[in-house]
């Protein structure tokens, strides 16, 4: 897409502090970082969200994400890493080009959890698992 910010970065029209690039993916520093080392891993072709990824892009982006996460942990000395990936407006997506945040985390960094935890009963869990399995 001509006006997509990530497509423009891939084409070299906008600057990025690049970490890694391969045939299918690119990773670079997030300019709106929660912590130093906060990186983004994107697929190079424009794909709006996870629902538009084929098996090749899915595998490539998660392989690249694992590499970047290991580098982020090694370089920042963080206590952990959060991977965040949002899809569609209701899911919290704000840039409509598939990407994964690699966010270094530190004990007591006070970043809020994403949701309140609830413990459904086993019957409800089993019923949902069966429905999801059937949809595959």
From TrEMBL:
Residues 5-112 form the HIT domain. A motif (Histidine triad motif) lies at residues 97-101. Keywords: Hydrolase. Coiled coil: none annotated. One of its GO terms (molecular function) is hydrolase activity. InterPro entries: Histidine_triad_CS, Histidine_triad_HIT, HIT-like, HIT-like_sf. It holds the Pfam family HIT. This is Hydrolase. It comes from Zoogloea oryzae.
């Amino acid at each position: 897409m001509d006006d997509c910010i990530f497509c423009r970065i891939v084409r070299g029209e906008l600057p990025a502090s690049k970490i890694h690039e391969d045939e299918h993916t690119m990773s670079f520093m997030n300019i709106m970082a929660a912590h130093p080392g906060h990186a983004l891993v994107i697929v190079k072709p424009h794909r709006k969200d996870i629902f538009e990824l084929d098996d090749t892009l899915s595998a490539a982006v998660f392989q690249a994400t694992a590499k970047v996460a290991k580098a982020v942990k090694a370089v920042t000395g963080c206590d952990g890493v959060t991977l965040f990936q949002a899809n569609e407006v209701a899911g919290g997506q704000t840039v409509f080009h598939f990407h994964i945040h690699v966010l270094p985390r530190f004990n007591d960094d006070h970043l809020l959890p994403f949701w309140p935890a609830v413990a459904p009963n086993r019957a409800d869990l089993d019923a949902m698992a069966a429905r999801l399995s059937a949809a595959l």
